Amino acid sequence: MAEDDWNQFYSTGEYERSAYLAGEMMDEYVDRFFTALGSSPDSFASVGCGPAVTEVALADRHPDIEFYCCDISEHVIRDNRELAEQRDLSNISFSVRSLPDIDMGREFDIVYCMATLYFVEEIEIAIETLYNHVASGGYLIFNYPTEATRDWLRDASQQKREFFSPVVSGTNLLTEKEIEHVLGTTLQDYWELVGATELQSAGHPAVFVQR
């Protein structure tokens, strides 16, 4: 979807404020990732944050972490800023940015991109860009579309198929080996690390890599 499409989607303010893929468990999975690392990061960037349900929940629980969130839609960013202000969360900020040519102006201990690359045609450039925003020793966490994702959409509504048009057309489907070639390093299974076995077997791979 183009920027205008996302702005239209979020323009009424009547969209469902929920986390994608695993709902309320998404922030719990991030906490499990922190536990596996043995410590919490100082900075966390979320690219394609949407309604920022996961990010706001994490910012509330981790006041010492700096959260930076961005999305293509000016409307959802405006709504997220209002929500953060209402909850008095001074450790989270929002800006309008879009992949693949995103420039956040700095590096972060964790760069997180979930349920976003489905909508990006130049997906290899996007993944490389995300990785370049990870600080040395930090981590990139993301999920990506595969042939299984396209199979999942075969019986979806026409509207949903239009939302996921790059996946439906096969433009941005990737394999683990292709991503490893782009990044020059080995991927690890995020769902396995955080104990999300139901997602690990559902054909929606999520991975992480250390820089």
Write structural notes for this entry.
The structure is a single chain. With 211 residues, this protein is α/β, with parallel strands linked by helices. It has one domain (3-210): Rossmann fold. 42% of the residues lie in helices and 18% in strands. The chain is built from eleven helices and seven strands. It has a seven-stranded mixed beta sheet with strand order 3-2-1-4-5-7-6. Helix 2 crosses helix 3 (53-61). The model has no long low-confidence stretch (mean pLDDT 91).
Distance between the termini: 30 Å
Give the overall shape. globular
Order of strands in the sheet with most strands: 3-2-1-4-5-7-6
Please provide the count of β strands: 7
CATH superfamily: Vaccinia Virus protein VP39
- Please describe the biggest sheet, giving its number of strands, its sense, and whether it closes into a barrel: 7 strands, mixed
Counting helices, strands and paired strands, the structural category is alpha/beta
Indicate the percent of residues in helices. 40-55%
How many independent structural domains? 1
CATH topology (level 3) name:
Rossmann fold
With helices defined by DSSP (H or I, 4 residues minimum), what is the helix count? Answer: 11
Radius of gyration from the alpha-carbon trace, in angstroms:
16 Å
Mean pLDDT value: 91
Q: In terms of per-residue confidence, which ranges show pLDDT below 50 for 5 or more consecutive residues?
A: none
Strand content: 15-25%
CATH class: Alpha Beta
Q: If classified by CATH, what would the architecture be?
A: 3-Layer(aba) Sandwich
H/E topology pattern: HHEHEHEEHEHHHHEHHE
